[in-house]
TrEMBL record:
Main location: plastid
Organism: Solanum tuberosum
Protein family: Belongs to the NAD-dependent glycerol-3-phosphate dehydrogenase family.
Protein name: Glycerol-3-phosphate dehydrogenase [NAD(+)]
Class of enzymatic activity (EC top level): oxidoreductase
InterPro entries (UniProt xref): 6-PGluconate_DH-like_C_sf, 6PGD_dom2, G3P_DH_NAD-dep, G3P_DH_NAD-dep_C, G3P_DH_NAD-dep_N, NAD(P)-bd_dom_sf
Subcellular location: Plastid, Chloroplast
Chain sites annotated for binding NAD(+): 90-95, 167, 224, 339
Reactions mediated catalytically: sn-glycerol 3-phosphate + NAD(+) = dihydroxyacetone phosphate + NADH + H(+)
Pathway: Phospholipid metabolism; Membrane lipid metabolism; glycerophospholipid metabolism; Lipid metabolism
Listed GO biological process terms: carbohydrate metabolic process; glycerol-3-phosphate catabolic process; glycerol-3-phosphate metabolic process; glycerolipid biosynthetic process; phospholipid biosynthetic process; systemic acquired resistance
Amino acid sequence: MTCLLEPPFRCLPPFQPFSPPRFRCYAAPGAQPLPSDPDTETLVLPLDGPKERREIVRLAWEKLVRWSRSLQSRAKTDVLERTNKIVVLGGGSFGTAIAAHVATRKSPLEVNMLVRDPQVCRSINEEHHNCKYFPQHELPKNVIATTDAKAALLGADFCFHAVPVQFSSSFLEEIANYVDPGLPFISLSKGLELNTLRTMSQIIPKALKNPRQPYVVLSGPSFALELMNKLPTALVVASKDQKIANSVQQLMASKNLRINTSSDVTGVEIAGALKNVLAIAAGIVEGLNLGNNSMAALVSQGCSEIRWLATKMGAKSTTLTGLSGTGDVMLTCFVSLSRNRTVGVRLGSGEKLDDILSSMNQVAEGVATAGAVIALAQKYNVKMPVLTAVARIIDNELTPTKAVFELMNLPQVEEV
Protein backbone atom coordinates (compact mmCIF):
# COMPACT_ATOMS: atom_id res chain seq x y z
CA MET A 1 0.00 0.00 0.00
CA THR A 2 1.42 3.38 -1.01
CA CYS A 3 1.10 6.03 1.70
CA LEU A 4 1.33 9.77 1.15
CA LEU A 5 2.85 10.98 4.42
CA GLU A 6 1.23 14.38 4.48
CA PRO A 7 -2.19 15.58 5.71
CA PRO A 8 -4.67 14.06 5.60
CA PHE A 9 -2.49 10.89 5.61
CA ARG A 10 -4.25 9.19 2.75
CA CYS A 11 -3.33 5.59 1.95
CA LEU A 12 -3.78 5.00 -1.73
CA PRO A 13 -4.13 1.55 -3.34
CA PRO A 14 -1.07 -0.01 -4.94
CA PHE A 15 -0.39 -0.78 -8.58
CA GLN A 16 -3.84 -1.59 -9.91
CA PRO A 17 -3.41 -4.66 -12.18
CA PHE A 18 -2.38 -6.82 -9.22
CA SER A 19 -4.68 -5.58 -6.46
CA PRO A 20 -8.16 -7.04 -6.02
CA PRO A 21 -9.91 -5.88 -3.84
CA ARG A 22 -8.67 -2.35 -3.10
CA PHE A 23 -9.02 -0.30 0.07
CA ARG A 24 -8.83 3.45 0.33
CA CYS A 25 -7.94 4.48 3.89
CA TYR A 26 -8.64 7.81 5.51
CA ALA A 27 -6.81 8.28 8.77
CA ALA A 28 -7.24 11.98 9.54
CA PRO A 29 -9.77 12.99 12.20
CA GLY A 30 -12.77 14.68 10.59
CA ALA A 31 -11.51 14.13 7.05
CA GLN A 32 -13.97 13.47 4.24
CA PRO A 33 -13.77 10.15 2.35
CA LEU A 34 -12.12 10.13 -1.03
CA PRO A 35 -14.37 10.03 -4.14
CA SER A 36 -16.09 6.69 -4.47
CA ASP A 37 -14.80 4.01 -6.80
CA PRO A 38 -16.80 0.85 -7.64
CA ASP A 39 -13.70 -1.28 -7.08
CA THR A 40 -12.64 0.43 -3.88
CA GLU A 41 -13.92 0.01 -0.35
CA THR A 42 -13.46 3.22 1.66
CA LEU A 43 -12.44 2.85 5.30
CA VAL A 44 -12.56 5.92 7.56
CA LEU A 45 -10.12 5.29 10.40
CA PRO A 46 -9.66 7.98 13.08
CA LEU A 47 -5.99 8.35 13.96
CA ASP A 48 -6.59 8.91 17.68
CA GLY A 49 -4.11 6.50 19.25
CA PRO A 50 -1.97 3.37 19.02
CA LYS A 51 -4.98 1.07 18.55
CA GLU A 52 -6.12 2.90 15.43
CA ARG A 53 -2.60 3.03 14.02
CA ARG A 54 -2.22 -0.72 14.55
CA GLU A 55 -5.49 -1.23 12.70
CA ILE A 56 -4.17 0.68 9.69
CA VAL A 57 -1.00 -1.45 9.70
CA ARG A 58 -3.04 -4.65 10.02
CA LEU A 59 -5.25 -3.72 7.07
CA ALA A 60 -2.23 -2.81 4.97
CA TRP A 61 -0.60 -6.16 5.78
CA GLU A 62 -3.76 -8.11 4.98
CA LYS A 63 -3.98 -6.31 1.66
CA LEU A 64 -0.38 -7.26 0.88
CA VAL A 65 -1.07 -10.90 1.79
CA ARG A 66 -4.14 -11.03 -0.47
CA TRP A 67 -2.18 -9.45 -3.30
CA SER A 68 0.61 -12.01 -2.83
CA ARG A 69 -1.81 -14.95 -2.78
CA SER A 70 -3.55 -13.65 -5.88
CA LEU A 71 -0.26 -13.56 -7.78
CA GLN A 72 0.76 -16.98 -6.50
CA SER A 73 -2.52 -18.49 -7.64
CA ARG A 74 -1.80 -17.23 -11.16
CA ALA A 75 1.86 -18.25 -11.16
CA LYS A 76 2.70 -20.79 -13.82
CA THR A 77 4.55 -23.98 -12.96
CA ASP A 78 4.52 -25.63 -16.35
CA VAL A 79 8.20 -24.83 -17.01
CA LEU A 80 9.32 -26.88 -14.01
CA GLU A 81 6.84 -29.63 -14.85
CA ARG A 82 8.13 -30.09 -18.38
CA THR A 83 11.84 -29.73 -17.53
CA ASN A 84 13.58 -33.10 -17.34
CA LYS A 85 17.27 -32.23 -17.35
CA ILE A 86 19.53 -29.31 -16.63
CA VAL A 87 23.30 -29.06 -16.88
CA VAL A 88 25.65 -26.94 -14.76
CA LEU A 89 28.98 -26.14 -16.37
CA GLY A 90 31.61 -26.00 -13.63
CA GLY A 91 32.04 -27.63 -10.24
CA GLY A 92 32.78 -24.55 -8.13
CA SER A 93 30.92 -23.37 -5.06
CA PHE A 94 28.19 -21.32 -6.74
CA GLY A 95 27.60 -23.82 -9.52
CA THR A 96 27.25 -26.54 -6.89
CA ALA A 97 24.81 -24.44 -4.86
CA ILE A 98 22.64 -23.75 -7.91
CA ALA A 99 22.70 -27.43 -8.91
CA ALA A 100 21.60 -28.44 -5.41
CA HIS A 101 18.86 -25.81 -5.33
CA VAL A 102 17.33 -26.72 -8.68
CA ALA A 103 17.59 -30.45 -7.89
CA THR A 104 15.42 -29.97 -4.79
CA ARG A 105 12.71 -28.30 -6.88
CA LYS A 106 11.74 -31.62 -8.50
CA SER A 107 13.07 -35.01 -7.45
CA PRO A 108 12.77 -36.69 -10.90
CA LEU A 109 14.77 -33.83 -12.46
CA GLU A 110 18.21 -34.91 -13.68
CA VAL A 111 20.87 -32.35 -12.76
CA ASN A 112 24.21 -32.93 -14.47
CA MET A 113 27.35 -31.12 -13.35
CA LEU A 114 30.15 -30.98 -15.90
CA VAL A 115 33.41 -30.88 -13.90
CA ARG A 116 37.09 -31.20 -14.75
CA ASP A 117 38.40 -32.70 -11.50
CA PRO A 118 37.92 -36.52 -11.41
CA GLN A 119 38.11 -36.47 -7.61
CA VAL A 120 35.23 -33.97 -7.36
CA CYS A 121 33.31 -36.05 -9.88
CA ARG A 122 33.72 -39.22 -7.79
CA SER A 123 32.83 -37.52 -4.51
CA ILE A 124 29.59 -36.12 -5.96
CA ASN A 125 28.52 -39.43 -7.50
CA GLU A 126 29.64 -41.80 -4.76
CA GLU A 127 29.37 -39.73 -1.56
CA HIS A 128 26.94 -36.97 -2.68
CA HIS A 129 29.31 -34.24 -1.53
CA ASN A 130 31.51 -31.76 -3.37
CA CYS A 131 34.70 -32.67 -1.51
CA LYS A 132 36.47 -29.48 -2.59
CA TYR A 133 33.89 -26.82 -1.75
CA PHE A 134 31.10 -28.34 0.35
CA PRO A 135 32.42 -31.45 2.08
CA GLN A 136 29.87 -31.07 4.91
CA HIS A 137 26.79 -30.58 2.73
CA GLU A 138 24.95 -33.56 1.28
CA LEU A 139 23.81 -33.03 -2.29
CA PRO A 140 20.44 -34.28 -3.58
CA LYS A 141 20.63 -37.76 -5.10
CA ASN A 142 19.54 -36.42 -8.51
CA VAL A 143 22.73 -34.34 -8.82
CA ILE A 144 25.11 -36.28 -11.06
CA ALA A 145 28.67 -35.27 -11.97
CA THR A 146 30.49 -36.12 -15.18
CA THR A 147 33.64 -35.15 -17.05
CA ASP A 148 31.99 -36.00 -20.38
CA ALA A 149 30.65 -32.82 -22.02
CA LYS A 150 28.62 -34.67 -24.64
CA ALA A 151 26.81 -36.78 -22.04
CA ALA A 152 26.18 -33.79 -19.78
CA LEU A 153 24.66 -31.63 -22.52
CA LEU A 154 22.66 -34.29 -24.33
CA GLY A 155 18.94 -33.59 -23.91
CA ALA A 156 19.42 -30.68 -21.50
CA ASP A 157 16.56 -28.18 -21.20
CA PHE A 158 18.61 -25.44 -19.47
CA CYS A 159 22.33 -24.81 -19.05
CA PHE A 160 23.83 -22.90 -16.10
CA HIS A 161 27.28 -21.52 -16.93
CA ALA A 162 29.43 -21.31 -13.79
CA VAL A 163 32.94 -21.22 -15.30
CA PRO A 164 35.11 -18.18 -14.33
CA VAL A 165 34.97 -15.45 -16.98
CA GLN A 166 38.68 -15.57 -17.91
CA PHE A 167 38.43 -19.28 -18.81
CA SER A 168 35.00 -19.22 -20.42
CA SER A 169 35.92 -18.63 -24.06
CA SER A 170 38.35 -21.55 -24.31
CA PHE A 171 36.07 -23.84 -22.31
CA LEU A 172 33.00 -23.10 -24.43
CA GLU A 173 34.91 -23.50 -27.68
CA GLU A 174 35.85 -27.02 -26.57
CA ILE A 175 32.23 -28.07 -25.99
CA ALA A 176 30.51 -26.03 -28.71
CA ASN A 177 29.81 -29.07 -30.89
CA TYR A 178 27.64 -30.61 -28.17
CA VAL A 179 25.51 -27.51 -27.48
CA ASP A 180 22.03 -27.39 -28.98
CA PRO A 181 21.50 -24.01 -30.71
CA GLY A 182 18.23 -23.54 -28.82
CA LEU A 183 19.58 -24.40 -25.36
CA PRO A 184 19.09 -21.45 -22.96
CA PHE A 185 22.36 -20.43 -21.27
CA ILE A 186 22.05 -18.92 -17.80
CA SER A 187 25.29 -17.19 -16.85
CA LEU A 188 26.37 -17.23 -13.21
CA SER A 189 29.81 -15.78 -14.02
CA LYS A 190 30.60 -12.17 -13.11
CA GLY A 191 33.37 -10.14 -14.70
CA LEU A 192 34.88 -8.84 -17.92
CA GLU A 193 37.22 -10.71 -20.23
CA LEU A 194 40.60 -9.11 -19.64
CA ASN A 195 41.89 -8.66 -23.20
CA THR A 196 38.62 -8.08 -25.04
CA LEU A 197 36.54 -6.26 -22.37
CA ARG A 198 33.62 -8.53 -23.30
CA THR A 199 30.81 -9.51 -20.96
CA MET A 200 29.38 -13.03 -20.78
CA SER A 201 26.48 -12.03 -23.05
CA GLN A 202 29.13 -11.38 -25.72
CA ILE A 203 31.49 -14.23 -24.83
CA ILE A 204 28.95 -17.09 -24.93
CA PRO A 205 27.45 -16.56 -28.43
CA LYS A 206 30.90 -15.85 -29.88
CA ALA A 207 32.49 -18.97 -28.40
CA LEU A 208 29.54 -21.15 -29.42
CA LYS A 209 29.47 -19.59 -32.90
CA ASN A 210 25.76 -18.93 -32.48
CA PRO A 211 24.66 -15.27 -32.19
CA ARG A 212 21.10 -16.46 -31.43
CA GLN A 213 21.97 -18.68 -28.47
CA PRO A 214 19.27 -17.92 -25.84
CA TYR A 215 20.94 -16.03 -23.01
CA VAL A 216 20.04 -15.09 -19.44
CA VAL A 217 22.24 -13.57 -16.73
CA LEU A 218 21.57 -14.40 -13.09
CA SER A 219 22.97 -12.07 -10.45
CA GLY A 220 22.32 -10.52 -7.07
CA PRO A 221 23.48 -10.72 -3.46
CA SER A 222 24.13 -14.41 -2.96
CA PHE A 223 26.83 -16.37 -1.18
CA ALA A 224 26.92 -20.00 -2.21
CA LEU A 225 27.15 -21.18 1.41
CA GLU A 226 23.90 -19.48 2.36
CA LEU A 227 22.15 -20.91 -0.69
CA MET A 228 23.33 -24.35 0.37
CA ASN A 229 21.95 -23.68 3.85
CA LYS A 230 18.59 -22.71 2.30
CA LEU A 231 18.63 -19.22 3.81
CA PRO A 232 16.29 -16.64 2.21
CA THR A 233 17.89 -15.15 -0.90
CA ALA A 234 16.73 -12.88 -3.73
CA LEU A 235 18.25 -12.76 -7.23
CA VAL A 236 17.59 -11.22 -10.63
CA VAL A 237 17.41 -12.97 -14.00
CA ALA A 238 17.84 -10.64 -16.96
CA SER A 239 17.29 -11.38 -20.62
CA LYS A 240 16.31 -9.46 -23.71
CA ASP A 241 13.76 -12.21 -24.22
CA GLN A 242 11.16 -11.79 -21.47
CA LYS A 243 9.71 -15.23 -22.13
CA ILE A 244 13.05 -16.89 -21.35
CA ALA A 245 13.53 -14.76 -18.23
CA ASN A 246 10.09 -15.82 -17.02
CA SER A 247 10.92 -19.47 -17.71
CA VAL A 248 14.08 -19.31 -15.61
CA GLN A 249 12.11 -17.57 -12.87
CA GLN A 250 9.59 -20.42 -12.82
CA LEU A 251 12.37 -23.00 -12.83
CA MET A 252 14.23 -21.50 -9.85
CA ALA A 253 11.81 -19.61 -7.61
CA SER A 254 11.07 -21.35 -4.32
CA LYS A 255 10.14 -20.61 -0.72
CA ASN A 256 13.74 -19.67 0.05
CA LEU A 257 14.76 -18.16 -3.30
CA ARG A 258 13.00 -15.14 -4.77
CA ILE A 259 13.66 -14.43 -8.44
CA ASN A 260 12.96 -11.04 -10.02
CA THR A 261 13.10 -10.54 -13.79
CA SER A 262 14.66 -7.75 -15.84
CA SER A 263 15.35 -6.88 -19.46
CA ASP A 264 18.49 -4.87 -18.58
CA VAL A 265 21.23 -7.38 -19.38
CA THR A 266 23.89 -4.66 -19.60
CA GLY A 267 23.07 -3.19 -16.21
CA VAL A 268 23.05 -6.55 -14.44
CA GLU A 269 26.31 -7.69 -16.05
CA ILE A 270 28.26 -4.46 -15.54
CA ALA A 271 27.12 -4.10 -11.94
CA GLY A 272 28.09 -7.72 -11.28
CA ALA A 273 31.54 -7.19 -12.74
CA LEU A 274 32.38 -3.85 -11.16
CA LYS A 275 31.14 -4.66 -7.66
CA ASN A 276 33.95 -7.23 -7.38
CA VAL A 277 36.55 -4.50 -7.97
CA LEU A 278 34.82 -2.21 -5.49
CA ALA A 279 34.84 -5.03 -2.92
CA ILE A 280 38.64 -5.19 -3.17
CA ALA A 281 38.73 -1.46 -2.37
CA ALA A 282 36.40 -2.00 0.59
CA GLY A 283 38.66 -4.78 1.84
CA ILE A 284 41.70 -2.51 1.59
CA VAL A 285 39.95 0.08 3.77
CA GLU A 286 39.26 -2.66 6.31
CA GLY A 287 42.83 -3.95 6.14
CA LEU A 288 44.20 -0.46 6.74
CA ASN A 289 41.82 0.07 9.71
CA LEU A 290 40.58 3.35 8.25
CA GLY A 291 37.23 3.21 10.01
CA ASN A 292 33.55 3.25 9.17
CA ASN A 293 33.47 6.80 7.81
CA SER A 294 36.06 5.90 5.20
CA MET A 295 34.24 2.70 4.30
CA ALA A 296 30.93 4.48 3.76
CA ALA A 297 32.57 7.23 1.68
CA LEU A 298 34.51 4.79 -0.47
CA VAL A 299 31.58 2.47 -1.21
CA SER A 300 29.32 5.44 -1.99
CA GLN A 301 31.88 6.81 -4.42
CA GLY A 302 32.35 3.38 -5.95
CA CYS A 303 28.61 2.99 -6.50
CA SER A 304 28.59 6.33 -8.31
CA GLU A 305 31.45 5.18 -10.54
CA ILE A 306 29.59 1.98 -11.39
CA ARG A 307 26.51 4.04 -12.26
CA TRP A 308 28.49 6.47 -14.42
CA LEU A 309 29.99 3.75 -16.56
CA ALA A 310 26.97 1.44 -16.72
CA THR A 311 24.56 4.17 -17.80
CA LYS A 312 27.03 5.33 -20.46
CA MET A 313 26.89 1.76 -21.77
CA GLY A 314 23.10 1.82 -21.89
CA ALA A 315 22.13 0.41 -18.50
CA LYS A 316 19.10 1.61 -16.57
CA SER A 317 19.85 3.52 -13.39
CA THR A 318 17.04 1.63 -11.62
CA THR A 319 18.91 -1.64 -12.20
CA LEU A 320 21.94 -0.23 -10.42
CA THR A 321 19.94 0.56 -7.28
CA GLY A 322 18.28 -2.85 -7.21
CA LEU A 323 19.28 -6.35 -6.18
CA SER A 324 21.94 -6.85 -8.85
CA GLY A 325 23.43 -3.41 -8.18
CA THR A 326 23.29 -1.96 -4.68
CA GLY A 327 22.19 -5.30 -3.19
CA ASP A 328 25.21 -7.15 -4.53
CA VAL A 329 27.56 -4.27 -3.63
CA MET A 330 26.43 -4.33 0.01
CA LEU A 331 26.94 -8.06 0.33
CA THR A 332 30.30 -8.17 -1.42
CA CYS A 333 31.79 -5.09 0.21
CA PHE A 334 30.67 -5.56 3.80
CA VAL A 335 30.64 -9.32 4.50
CA SER A 336 33.73 -11.37 5.31
CA LEU A 337 32.62 -14.34 3.16
CA SER A 338 33.38 -12.25 0.05
CA ARG A 339 36.46 -13.52 -1.79
CA ASN A 340 37.18 -10.13 -3.37
CA ARG A 341 36.84 -8.30 -0.07
CA THR A 342 39.22 -10.84 1.49
CA VAL A 343 41.82 -10.07 -1.19
CA GLY A 344 41.49 -6.39 -0.34
CA VAL A 345 41.78 -6.96 3.41
CA ARG A 346 44.98 -8.91 2.92
CA LEU A 347 46.39 -6.30 0.51
CA GLY A 348 45.61 -3.58 3.05
CA SER A 349 47.34 -5.66 5.74
CA GLY A 350 50.55 -5.68 3.71
CA GLU A 351 50.47 -9.07 1.96
CA LYS A 352 51.63 -9.49 -1.64
CA LEU A 353 49.02 -10.21 -4.28
CA ASP A 354 50.79 -13.33 -5.59
CA ASP A 355 50.89 -14.83 -2.10
CA ILE A 356 47.21 -14.06 -1.56
CA LEU A 357 46.09 -15.64 -4.83
CA SER A 358 48.25 -18.74 -4.43
CA SER A 359 46.64 -19.44 -1.05
CA MET A 360 43.05 -19.27 -2.36
CA ASN A 361 41.16 -22.23 -3.82
CA GLN A 362 38.55 -20.03 -5.50
CA VAL A 363 38.78 -17.29 -8.12
CA ALA A 364 38.46 -13.64 -7.06
CA GLU A 365 37.14 -12.21 -10.33
CA GLY A 366 37.78 -8.62 -9.28
CA VAL A 367 41.54 -9.07 -9.61
CA ALA A 368 41.37 -9.81 -13.34
CA THR A 369 38.44 -7.48 -13.92
CA ALA A 370 40.07 -4.36 -12.46
CA GLY A 371 42.30 -3.66 -15.45
CA ALA A 372 39.49 -4.38 -17.89
CA VAL A 373 37.18 -1.99 -16.04
CA ILE A 374 39.63 0.88 -16.43
CA ALA A 375 40.12 0.14 -20.12
CA LEU A 376 36.34 0.18 -20.50
CA ALA A 377 36.14 3.48 -18.62
CA GLN A 378 38.69 4.96 -21.01
CA LYS A 379 36.64 3.75 -23.95
CA TYR A 380 33.51 5.47 -22.64
CA ASN A 381 35.37 8.52 -21.26
CA VAL A 382 34.31 7.97 -17.65
CA LYS A 383 36.48 8.98 -14.67
CA MET A 384 36.62 6.27 -12.00
CA PRO A 385 39.14 7.24 -9.29
CA VAL A 386 38.37 4.49 -6.75
CA LEU A 387 38.29 1.62 -9.22
CA THR A 388 41.37 3.01 -11.03
CA ALA A 389 43.24 3.05 -7.73
CA VAL A 390 42.37 -0.63 -7.21
CA ALA A 391 43.74 -1.49 -10.66
CA ARG A 392 46.98 0.35 -9.91
CA ILE A 393 47.38 -1.44 -6.58
CA ILE A 394 46.85 -4.80 -8.28
CA ASP A 395 49.45 -3.86 -10.92
CA ASN A 396 51.86 -3.00 -8.06
CA GLU A 397 52.10 0.62 -9.24
CA LEU A 398 50.64 2.03 -6.04
CA THR A 399 50.60 0.98 -2.39
CA PRO A 400 47.27 0.91 -0.56
CA THR A 401 48.39 3.72 1.77
CA LYS A 402 49.53 5.90 -1.11
CA ALA A 403 46.25 5.23 -2.94
CA VAL A 404 44.25 6.52 0.03
CA PHE A 405 46.40 9.67 0.15
CA GLU A 406 45.89 10.33 -3.56
CA LEU A 407 42.12 9.74 -3.39
CA MET A 408 41.74 12.09 -0.42
CA ASN A 409 43.63 14.80 -2.29
CA LEU A 410 41.49 14.76 -5.39
CA PRO A 411 39.72 18.06 -6.13
CA GLN A 412 36.55 18.80 -4.18
CA VAL A 413 33.61 18.40 -6.57
CA GLU A 414 29.86 18.78 -6.72
CA GLU A 415 28.12 15.47 -6.01
CA VAL A 416 26.38 13.97 -9.04
